[in-house]
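task queued by scheduler; priority normal; single chain, no ligands, no partner chains; default sampling; output format set to structure tokens
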Amino acid sequence: MASVAAAPTFAQSASQSGSTGSSAGGIYNLIIGTYTGGKSEGLYVYHFDTRTGDAQQVSVAKTVNPSFLVVSKDSRFVYAVNELPGDNGPASLRGDVSAFAFDAASGQLTFLNKVSAQGNDPCYLSLSPDGRYLFVANYSVATDPGGSFAALPVQPDGKLGEAVLTVHHEGGGPVKGRQDNAHVHSTVFSPDGHYLFAQDLGTDKLWAYVYTPDGSRDVVSPAEWRYTGVKAGSGPRHLRFGNDGRHAYLTSELAATVTVFGYHDGHMDPEQIEELAEPGFQGTQGAAALHLSPDGKFLYVSNRGDANDISIFAVDGDSGKLTRVGRQSSLGKAPREFAIDPTGQWLIVGNQNSDTAYVFRRDRQTGLLEPNPKRIDIGSPVDFKFVAQ
């Protein structure tokens, strides 16, 4: 079951995009989120040349553990989690979300404000399609009440208001130490913007909510069918919708799988499950991010633990189902997140535990990643977003 706490609402316009617009001359801004316990200072901005795959650092904005970020649709604002308390901090410490103004021409970030995420270890952000609210998923290290997500109003000047809604899930799963309580790992809107799905690693559920910003109910309220369950102990993490809007793809961290769902009007129907590791693999695993190529023809999925690679699948244009076409080592440890540039020519993956990121040239016809990638040395890289200049 889920419990909801609400407050009065107000907001204004912005939007989310993983990679925004097109850039003259093939140069994009590349914003990288990091963990700051070691060599990193916060959010880094690079100029990325899509003609060569070269990246040159232009600025850094100091902020604590900005491990996930989103960019407004007009590219004027960047929002980043401050993932606290982390593995060693007190469970009483709540995380935050920071807002920045972004000058795409110069690549400079300017801090605007910071508000509470209303939970522990915020790890994912999504802007509502109308740009009025920023939703933050709190993974949570606390045992009571466990994982949650919150809705933060976006102000006209890009600043964030205090949370107007916080949703806590109840329950757990069979994997001791990982599923003792709820762990919300992502909040993702349906293509039509009517539904919000909260992937809960702890409860093995994709919780479904109706988005109602008209004030008739809370900002979101539970859908009639409440949730889609997955196999016990699998640990759902991240969700992506296919370009056709009729299919969705889910990583399950604990099972190290990717699941294909048929999607219609808020309902998810599982159709295929693919394991990420090679047959007979004996090491530890941890499925993480998944992203589609811009044309929607290929799906890429990262796997951590001892695997440290990216699985490459072809997507069937009619059924949405997956066929493996390859597997590429991340050339480091813990490839938590990655991104494909807007032209589809490059894939950049961050090795969180190796202080490196690698830029692979991507074959747009086969989906495969070519060897001899370019290397970027950066402390604990995690998330990547491309933004037009």
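post-processing summary
- Residues 1-17+72-229 form a domain with the Methylamine Dehydrogenase; Chain H fold (CATH 2.130.10.10).
- The longest strand covers residues 220-229.
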